[in-house]
Design goal:
With about 230 residues, the chain is of the alpha/beta class. The protein is built from 10 helices and 7 strands.
């Protein structure tokens, strides 16, 4: 009786937010934005706003019915992303300058931090000849965040929803990412923080490894553990 051969992994696809990098619920950048705009927020309101903005999967965001479809499509259109987040911000403060400054900080590479093992993971894969792609539902260019930490050259391809025109979990975005790194889907591994969104890769025969989107200080080596679990270290 014959058995199916297991294809060795020759490429790894990574999600961005909550997987390789995280926007931390840190009051420093929010306080700086408020000061710059000359606005103030109650501490409880500020904590709620940070939760709305920094929960990686976005499940905490509360919107009226007529905006829910726009929320789900936000990562396909930078203008729509800006509009919907401005609505969220304006629900907390009626201060246009503050809302605009907070949005600028939300999308700034200076406020996105890599997990402690992100650099070691990407550099190890590069050193061992494993192709790397980043596949993200995102509405702005995240490449600058990688450049900021000298990691851009460790990624072979960035496939971003607003550039590609489709979002995870659609199979097409994963298929395109595999093509972009030159590795067939069944020889790739998908690493992400969402079984739903990142799990779309499994429709192509790509196995999925899930990491928790914890704050960076609470997740020191989940990515390295994934490599070890899949014999990539």
């Amino acid at each position: 009786m014959s058995t199916l051969a297991i294809m060795p992994i020759r490429g790894v696809l990574f999600d961005f937010s909550g997987t390789l990098f995280r926007l931390e619920a840190d009051e420093v950048w929010l306080d700086a934005a408020l000061r710059k705009a000359g606005a103030e927020l109650d501490e409880t309101v500020k904590a709620n706003l940070l939760d709305q903005l920094t929960t990686p999967t976005g499940h905490s965001v509360r919107l009226p019915d007529h905006l829910r479809d726009a929320w789900h499509r936000r990562d396909l259109d930078p203008a729509l992303h800006h509009k919907i987040y401005r609505h969220v911000l304006n629900s907390f403060l009626e201060h246009d300058a503050a809302a605009e400054e907070i949005y600028a900080q939300l999308t700034s590479p200076a406020n996105w931090f890599p997990y402690p093992d992100t650099a070691d993971t990407l550099r190890h894969l590069r050193k061992t000849g494993i192709a790397v792609g980043v596949v993200s539902n995102i509405a702005w260019d995240i490449r600058d965040a990688f450049t900021r930490y000298d990691l851009r050259e460790d990624v072979d391809a960035f496939v971003l929803s607003y550039e590609f025109g489709a979002m995870k979990p659609e199979a097409s975005i994963f298929r395109h990412a595999c093509q972009a790194i030159g590795v067939p889907p069944d020889a790739c591994l998908m690493v992400g923080d969402s079984e739903v969104a990142d799990g779309g890769a499994t429709a192509l025969g790509t196995p999925l490894a899930v990491v928790e989107p914890l704050p960076t200080t609470r997740r020191p080596r989940a990515l390295l553990d994934v490599l070890e679990a899949h014999d990539l270290r």
